[in-house]
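Write out the bound-state structure for heme C.
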Amino acid sequence: MILALAGSSTCAACHKVEYTSQIETSMAHAMEPVAGCIILKQHAVLTFRDGVYHYRIERQGDQSLYSVTDGKNTVTVPLEYAFGLGKAGQTYVFELDGKMYESRVSFYAALNGLDLTTGAANLQPGNLREAAGRLMDRRGAEDCFGCHSTSATREHLQNPESLTPGVTCEHCHGSALAHVEGFRQGKPAAMKNLSALTTEELSDFCGQCHRTWAQIAADGPHDINNVRFQPYRLANSKCYDPSDKRISCVVCHNVHQEVVGSDSFYDRKCLACHASAKHCAVSTQNCVSCHMPKLELPGAHYKFTDHQIRIVRANASYPP
Ligand code: HEC
Ligand code: HEC
Ligand code: HEC
Ligand code: HEC
Ligand code: HEC
Ligand code: HEC
Ligand code: HEC
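---
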């Protein structure tokens, strides 16, 4: 049975503050059907070439047709889902002969155009189908949708049409159906209280998608490619204490709002522990600009913020 969700719009009446800003965040737009995809609407034609393969994505009404040709043969399919709001990039998922594929090319904001999907550069396609995309096994497809949308059960994941695109309220808080129905019947059911989680528990909670410390420690990568896995990076810094709330994800990020881009915003978070700025001989402000450097992730055309808070020495190598 598919466990029903109340839907984030039902929360608006009582939790207006969280609702109004959360629905605008990148997380809430982490996945969307191609019909509503803004990037593809704004780019009527996108092209890219890799060796003998030519790629083209062309908008036609509510559809975007993806064609890949090697000069002799051509595959043309409608794209189904756009993954990522596109601050860094956007990757597409399409169906071919009843199977799901991840597009071999992605859109990158920094290029305002296409390039190979991060990681795809290492894989040389053996045929046209492989040039079009990477076949996702069922587990891979479920993982993909699981992290980029709101689902309650495995049944949802097996039927992408039943998913709510993007990470919205009930992915994190659990189904609110009983909570909402309860108010109508005068017996409100309480929601799980996420603010009760410890710093470590919360890190693992966010880590179900942002990857946990344990996952990266065991499986890697142990190089610059782990810069995008914040729970791992943060736990490796000297500042991290699993039971100290002052270093929890939600101290620096209100998940109901888009991430704050100003360096000075984070100063008081640091100073909560480094009480007097005399600890730092170099500066009394914009701490993160030096101690949480933004590093380019190869192939992603994007700089991620290194959550391993540290002293960055000139020419020092990346601590993996
Ligand atoms: C009819 C009003 C109403 C609606 C609709 C409603 N809530 Fe609530 N919610 C409340 C009230 C009042 C509380 C505080 C009382 C309580 O904890 O039971 C609350 C508490 C919560 C809490 C716990 C906060 C804490 O710190 O313990 C969460 C989480 C929550 N709601 C999420 C949701 C979500 C998600 C939705 C939509 C799917 C939703 N609520 C819909 C009224 C509502
Ligand atoms: C269900 C999976 C999932 C969970 C759980 C999750 N995230 Fe995310 N988060 C994502 C995805 C996917 C993106 C990328 C969105 C995009 O840009 O398309 C993202 C982006 C972000 C961003 C950057 C963009 C923004 O929206 O401001 C921040 C910050 C963030 N997450 C913090 C958190 C924190 C903190 C938690 C834990 C409280 C958390 N996330 C839990 C999937 C998740
Ligand atoms: C374990 C959870 C997880 C899985 C599985 C996953 N993602 Fe993500 N994805 C994330 C998180 C978290 C982010 C945000 C942080 C980052 O960019 O690393 C993200 C970011 C992205 C971005 C960049 C978003 C932006 O706004 O720039 C794209 C594109 C993307 N994912 C596509 C995919 C596709 C396609 C799949 C399936 C083949 C997939 N992801 C599988 C968690 C996941
Ligand atoms: C990415 C995960 C995530 C999403 C999505 C999310 N929340 Fe939350 N929410 C949290 C966490 C974590 C906390 C605890 C924050 C803290 O301790 O500072 C929280 C706290 C709350 C609270 C309690 C606030 C308080 O001050 O006690 C309410 C109410 C709430 N969320 C409602 C919502 C609603 C409504 C939505 C959708 C519009 C939503 N949340 C989406 C993770 C999420
Ligand atoms: C001490 C403050 C701090 C803590 C704690 C923190 N972050 Fe961040 N985070 C930042 C800063 C600063 C940025 C970059 C903001 C900007 O300039 O856009 C950022 C950016 C992000 C982004 C956007 C992608 C990127 O690399 O720029 C994600 C996702 C994210 N944080 C997730 C997390 C998660 C998950 C946790 C908990 C494991 C966490 N953060 C804990 C300060 C913090
Ligand atoms: C929960 C408390 C806490 C928070 C919040 C915190 N730190 Fe720390 N930080 C520590 C502790 C404890 C150490 C280790 C001190 C020691 O070893 O003498 C440390 C060490 C450091 C170091 C030295 C690291 C090294 O490589 O030697 C720097 C730099 C630093 N913190 C900067 C920051 C900045 C910048 C922020 C905000 C983004 C921050 N810290 C937030 C507790 C914290
Ligand atoms: C312009 C870059 C820059 C800024 C901004 C900056 N720092 Fe530093 N910080 C450094 C450097 C470089 C060192 C190493 C100094 C040395 O040992 O030579 C350092 C050292 C530290 C240390 C370790 C001190 C010790 O003796 O081990 C801490 C803690 C620290 N900074 C915290 C902060 C905090 C908190 C802020 C913001 C209020 C901040 N820093 C702002 C560059 C900066």
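---
Residues 6, 10-11, 13-15, 169-170, 173, 176, 179-180, 183, 188, 190-191, 193, 195 surround heme C (ligand 1) (CB under 6 Å).
The CA atoms of residues 233 and 308 lie 5 Å apart.
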